[in-house]
Design brief:
Largest sheet: 3 strands, antiparallel
Strand content: 5-15%
Number of strands: 5
Number of domains: 2
Shape: globular
CATH class of the largest domain: Mainly Alpha
Structural class: mainly alpha
Helix content: 55-70%
Order of helices and strands: HHHHHHHHHHHEEEEHHHHHEHHH
Radius of gyration: 24 Å
Number of helices: 19
């Protein structure tokens, strides 16, 4: 306990760190206040508070901190920006123009960010129209007549998403941690107290307090397991040749390239969830298929068929996303230009093949573990854990929470160590997701 108070005191003594943490808390407070501001022309009393649909819509509501179900001005949150970031990142693989921008340093990143903002506006407008027409449908929920209701609130939702995106950029610039990731994390955490309280009340009322304690222990174990996956790395030793410049010697030291066991992060789960949402939409266009047993099994989020297909898609997307984000050829070329080599491996193509082989070997267990984490919420719901609380047992939300917390703590620890204070831990140092090799030549995911 004394160590904790000493660390907090050291954090408060560093003016720059104190200002950054204060700015971050203020920006996040603004976001949370805005998430309770209802759209103009919406009768909040007529809006159902249970927009807790399973699948993608339930996930979006969690990411938005409940704004989605409250018809808030921040109902769409930062998800349009995340979608735009993913599209631009994929364009960097398929379109030479964007691939060239990724290699132009700061100026290229600025142009990519500009393109991402433009695409965010387009995606937000489409999602806003779809949201207004599909989610605000209760009788008496619209005070303003159409089409003015849709026109006004399309502008409001678009402006709300752009404002949240601006808040995220300000947190990154003047706060601590990645702003977009912190906003998503705050949205997820906002739903935790109510989910925890409901689960506790249900267990106490049914005389299952011991069961609730077992659930908490299981949740802690799953969090520890997730941390191992997020932190897991395979280090490749790199030796740099000695160079004499004037009277000084450069190089001649051994460094390591840390290859992540889960280099794709949470992206495979997001891609797989988007595809798994397709079976639920097919009956809306083909009503005669609504009784198809295979289709209904895929729609049931607790069925073995759904979770098996979900796990297979995650494994496939993990390989796909790792292949497009980690470039062994670029790593080998950068290593060769800087006079580095892997002991026992020839520079050039042989090095690239060696790195590619290592990535392939560590991606398999990483993808399997990621698939296990993704289907744990369904397993938890099967054994009786309530839906909202079961989402914290794994899946996208847990991986985001673990990754963002580790990244933020890593930045705080860097400020402490830079000013010769002790770190946050007595032994070892916190390693966040941002600790990726500079030679990868990749653009990190937004979340």
């Amino acid at each position: 306990m004394k160590k904790l108070f000493t660390t907090l005191s050291n954090i408060w003594k560093i003016e720059d760190l104190r200002v950054r943490i204060t700015n971050t808390l203020l920006f996040l407070l603004i976001y949370r206040i805005g998430s309770f501001v209802v759209l103009p022309g919406v009768n909040a009393a007529q809006i159902s508070s249970e927009t807790n649909k399973e699948g993608l819509l339930g996930l979006l509501n969690m990411f938005a901190g409940g704004s989605f179900s409250r018809s808030s001005i921040f109902a769409l949150g930062v998800m349009p920006y995340i979608s735009a970031s993913i599209v631009v990142q994929l364009l960097g693989i398929a379109v030479p123009y964007f691939a060239k921008l990724q290699k132009e340093g700061e100026s290229g990143r600025n142009k990519i960010n500009q393109w991402t903002r433009y695409l965010t506006i387009g995606i937000t407008v489409l999602q806003a129209i779809g949201y207004l027409r599909s989610q605000i449908t209760e009788p008496g929920s619209k005070i303003i007549d159409e089409p003015m209701f849709t026109i006004v609130n399309t502008f409001v939702l678009t402006a709300g998403t752009l404002f949240v995106m601006w808040l995220g950029e300000k947190i990154t610039d003047k706060g601590i941690g990645n702003g977009i990731s912190l906003i998503i994390m705050v949205g997820i955490i906002a739903t935790l107290p109510s989910a925890f309280g409901n689960e506790f009340n249900n267990r106490v009322n049914s005389g299952g307090l011991i069961t609730f304690i077992v659930e908490i222990v299981a949740l802690i174990l799953v969090v520890m397991f997730t941390i191992l996956i997020v932190q897991g790395t395979r280090k490749i030793a790199v030796q740099y040749a000695k160079r004499i410049v004037g009277n000084k010697q450069y190089g001649g030291v051994r460094q390591y390239i840390p290859l992540k066991v889960n280099a794709a992060g949470v992206m495979p789960i997001i891609f797989a969830q988007a595809l798994m949402f397709i079976p639920a939409t097919i009956p809306q266009f083909f009503p005669n298929l609504s009784t198809n047993s295979v289709l209904m099994a895929l729609v049931d989020y607790n069925s073995w068929a759904h979770n098996l297909l979900f796990a297979v898609l995650i494994i496939l997307f993990t390989y796909f996303y790792t292949a497009i984000t980690v470039n062994p050829n670029q790593m080998a070329d950068d290593m060769k230009k800087n006079g580095g080599f892997i002991p026992g491996v020839k520079p050039g193509k042989t090095t690239a093949d060696y790195i590619d082989d290592v990535i392939s070997k560590i991606t398999l267990p990483g993808s399997i573990f990621l698939a296990i984490i993704a289907i744990i919420p369904a397993l938890a719901a099967t054994v009786g854990v309530s839906g909202p609380f079961s989402r914290f047992f794994g899946g996208t939300s847990l991986i985001i929470l673990v990754g963002v917390v580790l990244d933020t703590l890593q930045q705080i620890e860097s400020h402490l160590l830079m000013r010769h204070y002790d770190g946050l831990m007595k032994t070892g140092r916190i390693k966040g997701r941002s600790a990726v090799p500079a030679a990868t030549g990749t653009v990190p995911p937004a979340i």
